[in-house]
Structure formats: C-alpha cells, structure tokens
Write a structure and sequence with these properties.
The structure is a homodimer.
Chain A: H1 5-23, H2 29-33, H3 35-45, E1 60-63, H4 69-78, H5 86-90, H6 120-139, E2 148-152, H7 154-158, H8 160-171, E3 177-183, E4 186-187, E5 190-191, H9 200-206, E6 210-215, H10 219-231, E7 236-241, H11 264-274, H12 285-296, H13 299-310, H14 315-323, H15 331-340, E8 345-346, H16 347-361, E9 365-369, H17 373-376, E10 395-397, H18 402-415, E11 419-425, H19 433-442, E12 447-451, H20 469-474, E13 480-482, H21 487-499, E14 505-509, E15 513-514, E16 531-534, E17 540-546, H22 550-563, E18 567-572, H23 576-580, H24 584-590, E19 600-604, H25 613-616, E20 621-623, H26 634-640, H27 645-657
Parallel strand pairs in A: 1-2, 2-3, 3-7, 6-7, 9-10, 9-11, 11-12, 12-14, 13-14, 17-18, 17-19, 19-20
Antiparallel strand pairs in A: 4-5, 8-15, 16-18
Chain lengths: ~650, ~650
C-alpha cells in the first residue's frame, strides 16, 4: 500500500505525543494540529538538504511557536538529519538531549533560531529574509536565492512585537517571507474569544501583506495556499485553519491539548483514531523511507548550487562572509589618528567616526536605528538606505520599533553573511531586552549601539535617563557590555564587539562630550576589561574605578587626592565581562587584594551602585545614582546628584582620614 | 475684537516655542501641530475643573506623545490650574521646575501619567478606561461617568505595545476611550515613508475600533470628529491630519521642528506668520481670560456631581476606594490557618490561596494574567471575567500581551479606585519591563505576580528560566521585589505589596512545591526584608542567606554544617529593599559586621550571583547561576547546577576549614 500524506503527517503526530508522554511534560497540541501543513511544507516546498544543514542557500524554517518543539524535532528526525536520533527524541526534555523543551539553535543544526519567547521567531524570520535579499543583491541569484518559512501561533500574532515585525516586513516588501499561521482558535486560557476579537488577515493586509488561507487538514488546500504564498511578491500570511491536538479524539480542539501530556488513555485512543498501530517511537519502514526521500529532495538543487559556487568569481568572498570571518576591521589607522590628534567628543560621535572606518573596511555591516539616526550617530555617510527598491543598501530605517529591530538583527546574524548593528537610547534597551537576551542565549553577533547612557543626556528627564540599565545588562549571561570613556576606548570596544563571533555586545555611549583620556599608542587596553589608566603619584591610598563619562570625574578626584598627598590610581573599566575573563595575576595587578584600611577602593558610575561591591568590596565607597534622575542641563544634574570631583573628593578624603 | 479659536491655539504655540527656545532644548513641533485639536478638546469636549485636578469623575487626558510636553503644560497653565505658573514654564527643563522634559504625574496634578517612553501613554489610557467602566459598573452613573482622551503620535502607534493596547481596548469595547492621532507624517528620522507603509485606520478597524478623521487645522472639522468619537460605542481613533510645527513658516512640515528649538529667527518669523505680536511668555488678557473661562466649563458638572455624592449611599465606600485606603486585607486568618496546618505547596499556589482571602476582603482588586491563568494561579474561584458585557467582573483575560497588561495596570492604578495585579512567567518580566519601570517611576500600586521563578520550572528550558531577572528587578528604584520562601512568607509579601500605596511590587513565585518553613505565629517577618529563620545551634561560624526556594536548600546545608560541629544561622531574605530600609541595629543583628574568617557569609539563590557581594561581602561564598539553565526535570537541574545541600555543604566546609 502506497504511503500517503496522512501517513507522513501521522508519523509526526505519533512521535510528538509519544515524546510528550514519555517526558510527561510538553505541548502535543500544536505539532498534532500543524502536522498536515508541516508535511506539505517539508515534502513539497521547503528547499533543504537533510545531509547538509549548513547549506548556505537553504530555505530557512522558523518554528516561531516554539513550545510545539516536537514538530521540528519530528521533522528533522524523519527527513533524515543526523540529529535528533530517535534516542534524542525518547529523551525529549531530559538533561543531555538536544531535544530541549523549546528549540535551541545551539543544540541542533536545522533549528535556525531559538524560540519559545513568543513573537520573536517570526520577528527573527523578518531579519533572515532581509539578510537573504541583501546578500542576493550583493552576490546575485546564483549564490543566494531562498525563502524563509515560519510557523506561528496565535500567541506570536498577539504579542506586540508582531506589529513591529510585520510592519517592517511589509515596508520592505519581503516577498520571500511566508508565515503559516496555526489558526486553531485556542490559547492557554481557552478560546481566543476570551481575549481577542481581531480580524488578523485585515491587519496583515493593512501592513502591506498578502493573505491567503487553507483548510489545514486538507492537503490539496494546503499546497495551493503555499503556492499562492510562494508566488506573491509581498510577504504572505497563510491562515491555516486547524484543530489543535488533531487526532486525539476526546481532547482535540481544546486547550487541554496545549501544554500537557495527553495521558496514556488518550494516546491509545489517538492511535486508534489515526489508525496508527505501531509501538511508541516506532515509525514503519515505508513511512520512514518516504520521509527520508523527502529529505533528499533538495539534493539536486544543492548540487547545482555547488557547481555554480565552484565557478563563481565572488565565491570566496561569499563563503568567508557566511563563515563570519574578516581580515581587518579598519580601526587601526583610526585609533592612530586619535592618538596623533586627540578629540574631545561624545562617545556616540566617536562611535560614528569609528563606524566610518569599519563600514569602509567591512562590507558585511548593516546598520540602523529605531528612529534615532541623528541621535545614535549610527549612519555613516557612505551608507545608503536598505529599502524595498534597493536591498543592496546597508542602512535600515527600522522605525520606532526597538524590539522588532533587535529581533531582526538576531535573524540577520543567524542567517549569516552580515554583521548587524542598531541603535536606540540606552533607556529603551528595556523595550528590546527580550531580544538582547535571545542574542546572548543564541550566541549571535549583534551589536547594540545604546546612546544617551546616563543623566548626562540632560533635559529629557527621568523617563529617558538610564539608571539601572548598564548594571542590569551586565547581568545577562554571554552579553558583552561596554561603557567606553573616550574616543579611543570607543574604537577599541567596537573592535572587540566585531571580533566576538559568538555573542552580542552593547555599547553604552554618551550624548555629552568627553575629553580624550587615552593619549599614548598601545595595545587594545579595553580588551582587558579594566586597566590602570593613571598610576598614583604619591603613596597609593586609593583606587578609583570608573566607567564611561565618569572616568573624567575620577581623574578629577585623583588630582584632588594627590594634591592632599594621597596617591590614587585611576582604573578605567569599560567591560566587566572581559575583566572577569583575565587571569588572577592581571586582576590582582589592577585591583590588589589589600586591606581596605590600606587601599580604599572607590567606584564612580552614574548608574546603579548595587553590584559595585564586587569591585570596591563592601568596605569601599560607591558613587552613583540611588533613584531616578531629573530634567535639567547635564552639568546641573551631575552637580545635583553629587557626581562631580568637587563632591566626591571630600568624601573619599574623609574616609581615608578616619 | 472677540477672541477666536485661533487665538487660543496660538497661545499654546507661542508658549511652546518660547519655552523650548528658553531651554534651548525640547520639542516644539508637536504642540504647534496639535494646538488646534487640543484647543477644541480642552474648550469644548474635555470634562474637567481646573480648580480641582483631583475631581474623581473628571475625564482623563493623556498626552501619550510625551515629548510634546509643552502642549500639556500650556493647556494646564492657560486653563487655570494652579501649576504650572508662567515661571514654571519659563523654567521648562530646568532643575526644580515641575515642567520636566517629559510630563510627570508626580510633578503636576493634571498630568494623569508619566509619558515619553513611546506607546505607553495610550496603553495606560486603556487601563484608565477599564477602571472607569469597572467603577461605573460598581458605583453607577451618578458617581462614575467619564471619558479618557489621548493624544498620540506616529511613534506611539508604531511601537509594538500599541498592538497589544488597541487589541485589548477593542476586545473590551471601551467606547469611552478616544485617541486623537497626530497624523503629521513625520518621525525623527524624516518622513514616515522611510519606515512604514501601514494603513493605520484599517488596522484599528481590524481591532474593533471606530475610526474617524479631521483636518487638524479646521476647527469645525475637529469638533465634528470629536463628536463622532464621543458618540460611538466602540473605542475611537480620530485621525487628525496636521502639519508638524504649524506656524513656523520655514520649518513646519519637517522633522527639523520635532526635537530642537526653532531658533530666534524662526521664532520671530512664526510670530509674524501667526500674527502674535506679544513678548515671549506673554499672553494677552483677553486670550488668557477666554482660556480660564474654558477651564471653568466643568464647574457646573462638578457641582452636580458633588451634590449627587453628598446624597449617595455608596459615597463613603467610593471615596475611600478612590483614596486607596482599606481596613483589612483579609490575610490574618489565612496566615493563622497556615501556622495551624502547614502546607507543602508551590508559592504560586500559596499566592492563589492568599488571593482567595484578599479578593474576598478587598473588592478593589482586579486580577488577570497574560494568558497563563492556570500557571500563574492568579484567578480565584469567586472572580468572574471582566468583559465587554460585564465590566463588574474582576478578572481580566489580558491575552498574550504582557507589556499591554503592565501598562493597563498602571493606567488602572493611576485612575484610582482599584488595585490591579497581573501574572506572567518571571522570565517574561522582560517583555513588560518598560511598564514595570514606569510603575516604579510613577509610584503606582501595581502588583506583578511572576511565577516560574528559576530553573525550578524544569523542562521548559533556558528560554523560560529566569537567571538575571530577580536581580535585575532589584535594580529598579522604588520597586519592591519579593521572593518568598513558603506559604507564610507569600501571604506576608502579599500584605506588604497591598500596603504600599506609592509603588509597585513583584512577587517571584515558584512552580515547584516548597515545604513550609515558618511554623510559629509571629509578626510579619517579611516586613523586615530579611530575618533569622533558624539560629545556629553550635558556635556560629556561618550565616547562610537565601531567598525563595533556596531557603529549603540553606536549611539542608545548615543541618550538614551543624552535624560537623559548625553553627550556622539561616537567614531568609524575601526583600532586599525592605532589609535596606531597616535601621542599622536590626541589620547588624541579622548580618553582624565580623571578620569573614570568624563568620562566613554564604548566599544561595538560583539566579545571578552578581550583586550578592553586598550581603556576603566579597570574601563570602555565593551559590547561584553563572549562565543559562537547561531543559530537564527540576530536581535534575538543581543537582546539575550544584544548587543542593549535598553540593554546597562541602564547599562551605572547605572554606571554613581553610
């Protein structure tokens, strides 16, 4: 008997319910509901070669509704990827299995991005589609010509980021992006009617999308809709009308299938209803073979692509870009020129000048800002806009979409071939914090240019003044947070951010001008995380540790202490993470472990003081902000909040004279 | 010559450009562009009494586009509010003036909420409109019958939160909410065409809104549109077609007017163009009088309302609710019953039980969840849903809208008369972090119920496991963060959250069961922030400090240390903020300042360790998470990451035996 599409789909259903059952935890409803749609996509439309998950010109598949992770694990396994094996699936949600509760790009090739935090998968897919069009514009159809497919649920569509993501995709007319919406009318709390009356297709149409639909359990209807989607020059939303948990006779169509194992009885009933008589985790040979054939469908296209690459003049360049490698970031000459003629400029301006050098040297950078181009100084004059009419452009006007920007940058970085950076005010890092966390978790090279990094922004007041932000970003694992003190450190930090292939960076930059404190040619001192900027002249009684704009303040404090006969080191600490990564000898050389009564440590940073005890010890002094800022010119604020050398020096003196 | 509407509007324009000019910083474009619309609203539609900004039944006016703050300062001043005075306006954006860069509710009565972070003003207005309908349902038309008006710009509409906010408003059919959209086709980066092609009216219609429009510089057209909006049973979007910076002859219609002073020359040209011959900050008497008359328009309605209140059976109840006062939170008996029969339950479950008592005692609570009702345990069985058909309901199905929920809760709390609480997973506090920050800055009593507070949630894996979240929330000024250790502490923390009228609280709660560690009747010990839960039996060599689920671990470590002859205190620390607020004697009694070689301090918390140096000192030991979690059952994870008594005790022993 010939293997039918239903058989293929039921293999997904069976693996999904069996794995969730074995884990006694997980989400069977989505994989069972979308099994038919996914089968059509993966056997007829998606361009991939299971033998080579890293083929650069593969279609990207994003399971935005990441809780339905058994769908993608089933698809990867059945279509013949090396992993997950059936044992991996048997160990779904157990320690050591790559089949985690939610799909993780760092666990399994074929998982293009880490999903689960709702809405972000689709928003990252927008970035993937942007990267594809950009590389196509640069390298041509022979090397880059693929689509991005997304499966999303109601949660992904209800999240705010969906509005930002589809607005951006519509504006950029990303026709190769196709979103399959699992329209099952169920959320965790119950019917979607509990929380929404939205006409979703109308909203997508309002954002410049093409909308089509299908019966998600009718294979012909599905195929026709996917064909429509693939052919339309606009991004497409395919409304797939489905039944959640399809196949579980007593629970399907209800939220009971969403996030819990079906239970042995219902699993047995589902096997009966589906006519699936095989044991748990067993896929009969004919169905397994048919799936593996589907996984080889792309082989011919892959071979054709390899042949084109072999003879292509741009092949080498393309491949090194996809590998994320580059020879020279272009910054050395710039730093040399700063040493030759020091600049008193804001670090946001210093960043712009550094970017001038970087963007000239590295064609892979794609910049942008969430509608603060002139404030973030993210656009260099040679950058033309990335638009629906010119995908070769290297500057994205993201609009007032901080979170959408962060997610799009993640998608671009995951796609490969480009290095995205984007700007907003540091206080609005909160708006894109979930994307920053996913950059860090996913190990993507994304560079966040966050300007206006303290009360130093002045008059805009407390709503715009970061207080807790620098420290709270330092808390995110695998995120490099830089707060450079001058134009030289800014360039150094840019070099470090670009060099980190496996993680994101945040550059916290000032609005206000800062004197250049680095005046001698040297190695990249910021790479140490912290270093002695100025050594004590007198007997060392104090070590002043500061970041960013407060390094200038620390130098002023040191002057006053030295004038009173107390030696004071000034340590600039642009990156806590990099300092922590140094060996103990180096760390001791900068911050020696000495009784505080002999050498007092003092921190100065115009932000939260909680956390600074790590470097000052509890017995040291910390100067910073213990509440919100205020609206006034910056110099007035620094004075008001006691963050000047005049205010700090007497307090340090009082302490050491105790 | 009679004062015209143009004269009234030009007074706003003049004050706005003069104030920005004097500050040499600010945003003249929006106030000048929306001056005509605002004039019609404030002289013909808005129900208010400038003599009493706190009148409970006033219409709420929200300037969501907060950067255009001079618009509301002008309106308040001109219509006769006591503040801002003309001197306040002269000192716009200077230290000490209540006229901050962005409008702040804690600076000026009449500023209903703090705006500037885009999108949140409109989203808070949704919450205000919800509170109004709820109180109307409870207290009737005689006491509560008002509207909420919003002025929003393109930025507010492009932010993701806008999608969440209008989806919620449409679902709840908040017909008394009217949004005036300043459709000036300009953002900071330039034309809106740079970043969006959206059909905004179509999107609003798709979310169940009524949409109308006007020429924003034609007074009749404006009045007609506002009348349409006021009369429609759906929430209304009024598209006001305006020219940004209207009146500045050379700069109007361009982004040059958005965020910078016009310059002396252009201000002079604008005076000429507007026919405004008066000196800076000078409003001629006839225009000033006409404005003040408008500010008294609501006086009669106010008197009528006072008369109704005077004779109303529910007046006392209504007024104490609006004052935010209550007599008894209902928790004492619940805590007594826990002491009588201890419970081993998850703190999320403990929270549900506490809420049972609270919701019965306090009719002002309105609960909800962002589609995680059954997981957050936020709904008590007596709560019926708050729906378009039943505004008396006290449970909101917010949908998958964490940020929208946070903002709506802020709006409800600002409106007064209700105490909102709402749930999501702690990891998704990132999604609503900008709203949490605004709760703290605005001093609103909003209670965030954040469950699944560590790797203890188990199989959902790293995307769902908070690591940095508890610590990063502790960094936000004026936010109370609670991580209770058992059912008793959970109830205590609820009592403290409810009692704090001037700020928000976060409750970080477990998914997994915890033994009850508090077995004796006592005062509210959580109110101290930290307290000695168990005193050392042997000579005290160690103080173990833990929070939440790790208090159980700390007790296990203490057992092992005592068994080896080393005395160990166990300190439970549910709230860092409250501990910091205790006097030094108390803090010393819990954590005495003693050389670490005599008493070692050890922290145990399944989250970031950065920050814990404050309590352990650098010389102490810290146990926590230094990277992301993993997907597996919770007990496996605690073991894997070394957060068990078995793993920790030997390390502590090794340290004290050094």
């Amino acid at each position: 008997m010939a293997v039918t599409q239903s058989d293929l789909a039921n293999a997904i259903r069976a693996l999904s319910m069996d794995a969730v059952e074995a884990a006694n935890s997980g989400h069977p409803g989505m994989p069972m509901g979308m099994a038919d749609v996914a089968t059509v996509l993966w056997t007829q439309f998606l361009k991939y070669d299971a033998a080579d998950p890293h083929w650069a010109d593969r279609d990207r598949f994003v399971l935005s509704a990441g809780h339905g992770s058994m769908l993608i694990y089933s698809l990867l396994h059945l279509s013949g990827y090396a992993r997950p094996t059936i044992d991996d699936i048997r160990n779904f949600r157990k320690l050591g299995s790559p089949c985690a509760g939610h799909p993780e790009n760092f666990e399994l090739p074929g998982v293009e991005c880490t999903t689960g935090p709702l809405g972000q998968g689709l928003a990252m897919a927008v970035g993937m589609a942007m990267a594809e069009r950009h590389l196509n514009a640069v390298f041509g159809d022979d090397l880059v010509d693929h689509k991005t497919w997304v499966i999303a649920g109601d949660g992904c569509l209800m999240e705010g980021i969906n509005h930002e993501a589809i607005g951006l995709a519509g504006q950029l007319r990303l026709g190769r992006l196709n979103v399959l919406w699992d329209d099952n009318r169920i959320t965790i709390d119950g019917s979607t009617e509990l929380s929404t009356c939205e006409d979703i297709p109308a909203r997508y149409a309002a954002s410049g999308w093409h909308v089509t639909e299908c019966d998600g359990h009718d294979f012909e209807s599905i195929a026709k809709a996917l064909e429509n989607a693939a052919g339309d020059p606009r991004p497409s939303l395919v409304r797939c009308k489905t039944v959640i948990g399809k196949g579980a006779p007593n629970k399907q169509g209800t939220s009971a299938t969403h996030g819990a194992a079906l239970g042995a009885e219902e699993v047995a009933a589902a096997r009966e209803a589906l006519g699936w008589s095989h044991a748990a985790f067993e896929v009969p040979a004919d169905i397994a073979d048919a799936w593996r054939e589907a996984g080889k469908r792309g082989g011919e296209a892959h071979t054709g692509w390899k042949n084109r690459v072999a003879n292509h003049s741009k092949a080498e360049d393309f491949q090194s870009r996809m590998a994320g490698d580059f020879a020279d970031d272009g910054l050395s000459a710039h730093i040399a020129s700063l040493i030759a003629s020091p600049q008193k400029i804001a670090t946001r301006k210093a960043s712009e000048i550094a970017l001038g050098a970087i963007n000239a040297a590295l064609p892979e950078t794609i910049g942008g800002s969430a509608d603060l181009t002139g404030s973030n100084n993210t656009k260099t004059k040679d950058q033309s806009p990335f638009t629906r009419d010119d995908y070769a452009g290297r500057y994205v006007y993201y609009g007032i979409r901080e979170f959408g920007m962060g997610a799009a940058m993640n998608g671009m970085a995951l796609h490969g071939g480009v290095i995205p950076y984007g700007g907003t005010f540091l206080v609005f890092s909160d708006y894109c914090r979930p994307a920053i966390r996913l950059s860090a978790l996913q190990q993507t090279r994304v560079i966040y240019v966050m300007t206006h990094d303290s009360i130093g922004l002045g008059e805009d007041g407390p709503t715009h003044q970061p207080i807790e932000h620098v420290m709270s970003l330092r808390l995110i694992p695998n995120l490099q947070v830089f707060r450079p003190a001058d134009a030289v450190e800014t360039a150094e930090c840019w070099a470090l951010a670009l060099a980190k292939k496996d993680g994101p960076s945040v550059l916290a930059l000032t609005r206000q001008n800062l004197p250049q404190v680095r005046l001698q040619a040297s190695e990249n001192l910021s790479a140490k995380g912290a270093y002695r900027l100025r050594a004590a002249q007198g007997d060392r009684r104090v070590i002043l540790i500061a970041t960013g704009s407060e390094v200038e303040v620390a130098l002023g404090v040191a002057d006053k202490l030295e004038a009173e006969g107390f030696g004071a080191d000034v340590v600039s600490m642009p990156s806590w993470e990099l300092f922590a990564a140094q060996d103990e000898d180096y760390r001791e050389s900068v911050l020696p472990t000495v009784d505080p009564s002999q050498i007092l440590r003092v921190s100065i940073e115009a932000g939260s003081m909680l956390g600074w005890e790590r470097h000052t010890m509890v017995q040291g002094l910390r100067f910073g902000m213990d509440g919100y800022g205020a609206s006034a010119p910056a110099p007035d604020l620094f004075k008001h909040f006691g963050l000047t050398a005049e205010a700090i020096a007497p307090k340090v003196l009082a302490e050491i004279r105790k």
